[in-house]
Amino acid sequence: MTKVLITGTGLFTPEDSVSNEELVLAFNTYVENFNTEHAAEIEAGSVEALAPSSVEFIEKASGIKSRFVMNKSGIIDPDIMCPRLPERSNEEPSILAEMSVKATREAMQQAGIESTDIDAVLVACSNLQRPYPAIAVEVQELLGIEGFGFDMNVACSSATFGIQTGYDMIRSGSARRVLVVNPEICTGHLNFRDRDSHFIFGDVCTAVILESDAVASAEGSFEIVDTRLITKFSNNIRNNFGFLNRTAPETVGAKDKLFVQEGRKVFREVVPMVAELIEKHLNDNSLAADDLRRMWLHQANRGMNDLIAKKVLGRDPSETEQPTVLDEYANTSSAGSIIAFHKHKEDFDAGELGVICSFGAGYSAGSVIVRRSA
Ligand code: COA
């Protein structure tokens, strides 16, 4: 049976970052301006006054201290409050493809391969810049990759769903080397005027190289022991933006064309779903939670991750058992668990096991059990 190895990972981090202090200052200035502008209506009771945000709340509720972003000036300008990313001409690379190429170069270097060695490109992310041509096909073109590519979107679980797709391709023989890349410009779908969620997301891109053991040569790779995916419909995390909408996001009443969620319900419903997924997945592979050295969890919320790890382990996880990148990166959708894996895998010894796990809108969740190769 063909074994599938993760032989390289890559990370592209944008240059700009926004601290909670900077984000809250912009939000609270917007709130003050709104309340001043609507003072008479607020007084008359026809408009509800907006409440300010707070740095303390954000850190306590989410564990997030800062986030990297593709455009800072637009986000922290109280009159704009969204990233300003000028549209590019058809002759220029798209932003998602450009980020993908940067993350991929690091992953290829780690895997010790050239782009011409890759057979398939999967761009797996939450928000695609355009419907077609696929960003994956553009990445192929920019890197000189033959074979084929396609885009896929399973929201925050896109990376693990992409990994299982590549794993299945390699095992079935339709490809020997697959690139799975996750360019996430989450700030593009975030409503920076929404107090409940304005702090949640950041931007980043991750890349993973999967190879058949018949061709892999990199040392210190991770063998994929098994993968498992689940989905269950829920409206609790939703974004209605799409090609049938003609309404600009800033139009009154169009808030659902950006990210919206019922945060509390998500917390309550997703934690048990993910813990059960990991437990069953381990069990079906005759493994116990104690066999895991580490869990690289989706980075959505510190409290959620601590609780999932606690349910799986039956005790509080240590920082090295369940590393977080949330403080620095915030929620970067599908890229989160891969950032954690990328940054916290080198200390593994041969034979040690871990699980990469994502969860998010859909609901969707994915579990990838990996073992460090010799
Ligand atoms: N600043 C200050 N206070 C705020 C605030 C802000 N930005 N946003 C909300 N609050 C207040 C609320 O008004 C509320 O006040 P009240 O108790 O007086 O009514 C209080 O803080 C609690 O609000 P709530 O929305 O219930 O917060 P929470 O503790 O559930 O945390 C999330 C909110 C979103 C961080 C949390 O629910 C969560 O992480 N859920 C998981 C969802 C997730 O991560 N989704 C991403 C996709 S996977």
Please give a quick description of this structure:
With 374 residues, this protein is α+β, with helices and mostly antiparallel strands.
Describe the protein's architecture and organization.
- By secondary structure, this protein is an alpha+beta fold.
- It has a domain at 222-372: Peroxisomal Thiolase, Chain A, domain 1, CATH 3.40.47.
- Helices cover 33% and strands 22% of the residues.
- The protein has a 9-stranded mixed beta sheet with strand order 5-4-6-7-1-8-13-12-11, with helices on both faces. A two-stranded antiparallel sheet has the order 2-3. The chain has a two-stranded antiparallel sheet with strand order 9-10.
- Strand 4 (120-124), helix 6 and strand 5 form a beta-alpha-beta unit.
- Helix 5 packs across helix 6 and helix 8 runs parallel beside helix 9.
- The model has no long low-confidence stretch (mean pLDDT 95).
- Bound molecules: coenzyme A (COA).
- Residues 53-54, 57-58, 61-62, 156, 195-196, 237, 261, 263-264, 266-267, 300-301, 304, 331, 360 line the site of coenzyme A.
List the helices and strands and how they pair.
Layout: E1 4-12, E2 16-19, H1 20-37, H2 39-44, H3 55-62, E3 66-69, H4 72-75, H5 95-111, E4 120-124, H6 135-143, E5 148-152, H7 158-172, E6 177-185, E7 203-212, E8 222-231, E9 237-238, E10 260-261, H8 263-284, E11 292-297, H9 302-313, H10 326-329, H11 336-343, E12 353-360, E13 364-372
Helix pairs in contact: 5-6, 8-9
The structure holds coenzyme A (COA).
Residues 53-54, 57-58, 61-62, 156, 195-196, 237, 261, 263-264, 266-267, 300-301, 304, 331, 360 line the site of coenzyme A.
